[in-house]
Amino acid sequence: MSTTIKPFWWRFLLLLLxxxxxxxEAIFNAQLVSLVGLGTPSAQDLEHLExxxxxxxxxxxxxxxxxxxxKAMVAKVxxxxxxxxxxxxxxxxxxxxxxxxxxxxxxxEPSSSQQRQFAVYSAALRDALAINSIKxxxxxxxxxxxxxxxxxxxxxxxxxxxYSDAALSDNLEDDKRKIxxxxxxxxxxxxxxxxxxxxxxxxxxxxxxxxxxxxGSKKYNQTLAGISTREQGYWQQVEQQINDGWGNxxxxxxxxxxxxxxxxxxxxxxIYGYHKQVARCSERYDKSSQxxxxxxxxxxxxxxxxxxxxQAGIGYIEPDYWLIVEDISATxxxxxxxxxxxxxxxxxxxxxxxxxxxxxxGGIKDxxxxxxxxxxxxxxRFLQHPKFGQLFVTETGYEFGIENLITFRAHDxxxxxxxxxxxxxxxxxxERWNINDRAEFAQAVAKKVTNEANSQxxxxxxxxxxxxxPNLPWVRFQLHKQIQAKIADRMGDLYVKNIRADWxxxxxxxxxxxxxxxxxxxxx
Length: 524
What we know:
elongated, mainly alpha, 21 helices, two-stranded antiparallel ribbon, 2 strands
């Protein structure tokens, strides 16, 4: 204690804090005796107790050093409280972390493998005493009163007693394996009926899970078995799409003809008027001196025609396109030549001969051109025009004039539309697929159905946090690593590798004992 007398309030405060400190210290000691006396504690419980003990030690050391603070630092209440808080903030972390470091560096790391082995052995012997699996002559220990303070204290100190009593240690060394075996058997059989009841409940739960799993597998298999039926159903859609498309195509043809008819009704008279006006220009200005007036007359007619025909929506069309073309036979040409020769007294014949001799046609024509006001003629010519036909292709994807369903069925556009239709339904067909590739269609359906079945299976498994394959038998289902992980999580320390949920009590007891015995850490 400091020789300088401190203020009364300071001494009273330290006394009060020291008294309060005894409470967590007593709790730590009680927990230490309880945990160690009941057997080897779990790593988590031991870690929590260690952290708690180091925290309490930090506070105790800080209170101890607080008594050595100079009087000047505690002369006033405010200064004293600040000094105490500063001391705790400085000392507590040093003790908390320093204590762990010192123990590890001075006790744990320098220890030999034999010392660590003996420590484990003494802990196992203490646990064997705790569950009454062995008796040591000369030790007055009553395992029936395990939770009494005397027994708990004795077991907590037993490891140190064994380590310090060389005679006791030597006497037990020869029976080390027997002691371990007895302990393991007693530990395995302790509360076995209770554990078997929990194990039976686990079996019931696994049976329910496997029934759901088997039901899902059955559904998965039925889906794959129905691929042929699904393929037939999809092919019916193919036929339906073709029939519907053919009906739509026929309706589009009728609409296209109606559009041509409407244009013929509207522009036919204007086209006829153009040709009629050109003929009048030729008749009215037939003299060579009237050539300029005749050309101007032609130009006016051509301008009116151009303005009208552009409104038809398919661009400019040469006027001669609308003329009726007739073939002139050789007989008709000969008869015409004879008649003209007769009427002109041979002059026409002489001129015709001169024309032929100089490379001309001699007035012999193989074609005759006429114009008409018949709307049917103009309707046909609209339908025959390439640009008007392109309107139909743009609208339908097909050229105009497909005559029958067979041709329509084999058309590239039909195959393309079918690929697009089924692609929207998740059925992927090769870009080169056509209506004749039934085998490839069946393969695409099989792939789609298989992918759907696998996707649905993975989704169902994900709901149970699993990724099992379908169709596992009951035994393989139990032994699967994911199911074993769930069993291990449920059984905790009682789990043994590759345990099965359908073992009876006898098999479970013997198997668990064997497996636990094989995993006893005799040597370190």
